[in-house]
Structures are given as C-alpha cells and as structure tokens.
Amino acid sequence: VQLVESGGGSVQSGGSLRLSCAIFSYTYGFQCMGWVRQAPGKGLEYVSRISDQGTTSYADSVKGRFTISQDNAKTTLYLQMNSLKPEDTATYYCQADFRTDCFVRTVADMVYRGQGTHVTVSS
C-alpha cells in the first residue's frame, strides 16, 4: 500500500490550498482515512478524519476552514484548506487504516501514512 500526497506549497495568510492523497495498491477500501500535520519542532497533530461511511471530524483549530473529502472510487483523499493562517504551516500527512473504530484511534495508531507534503503560510 502506498499513499502519495500532493498539493502543498506556499501561500499568503487567508489563501487556500487543496491537498490530495492518492492510494496505490489497495483495492478493498479503507475504513478510515485522515490528515495529520507536523510543524517544525513539534509532534504530529490531528487535523481531520473521514470514515468509510462518510462521517467526518475536525480538530478545533481547523474546523470551519478545512474540508475533508474523497472521490467516489475512494482512491483519492482530499483536504480543502481555506482561510489559511501562519500557524497552519506544517508538513501534512495522509493516513489510512483498514480497521474500524475510526474516530477513537490516535494519530500514532493508524496503520498507513504517506511521505507528506509541505505547506507554508506567510503573514
């Protein structure tokens, strides 16, 4: 299984970016997918998650600004990020898990993670 993120870049505060995560070599469909981020010198931070049924959750810090979604074939995960702030600067990672109980798993407990895509938001 391979998760490949793209869409990162540099934007000014208030701008938008759309991150994508392409899934390779897994045809059964994950029960749970999500995004985490890591700012320089900090640990992994939960951003958002979506279950196989389409239920979503967001960290309070991004609620109302970020939207998680996936395509109908469930081969690509997205994160639409609007009203970006300098504190959103981080490397963003896609995560996936074939197990259930999507919303009780910690960021460290997800089975698969991509290599990340970096987002820089300047003030």
What's the short version?
With 123 residues, this protein is mainly β.
Radius of gyration: 13 Å
Q: Helix share of residues?
A: under 10%
SSE succession: EEEEEEEEEEE
* Low confidence ranges: none
Shape: globular
For the sheet with most strands, the description reads: 7 strands, mixed
Count of helical segments? 0
Strand coverage percent = over 45%
Query: SS-based structural class?
Result: mainly beta
| DSSP E strands, number | 11
> Can you give the mean pLDDT?
94
Distance linking N and C termini: 37 Å
Describe the structure.
The protein is mainly beta. The chain is built from no helices and eleven strands. The protein has strands at residues 2-6, 9-12, 17-24, 32-38, 44-51, 56-58, 66-70, 76-81, 90-97, 112-113, 117-122. Strands 2, 4, 5, 6, 9, 10 and 11 form a seven-stranded mixed β-sheet that branches. Strands 1-3-8-7 form a four-stranded antiparallel β-sheet, with no helix packed on it. The chain starts with a strand and ends with a strand. The model has no long low-confidence stretch (mean pLDDT 94).
Reconstruct the topology from this structure.
Layout: E1 2-6, E2 9-12, E3 17-24, E4 32-38, E5 44-51, E6 56-58, E7 66-70, E8 76-81, E9 90-97, E10 112-113, E11 117-122
List keywords for this structure.
four-stranded antiparallel sheet, single chain, seven-stranded mixed sheet, 11 strands, mainly beta, 123 residues
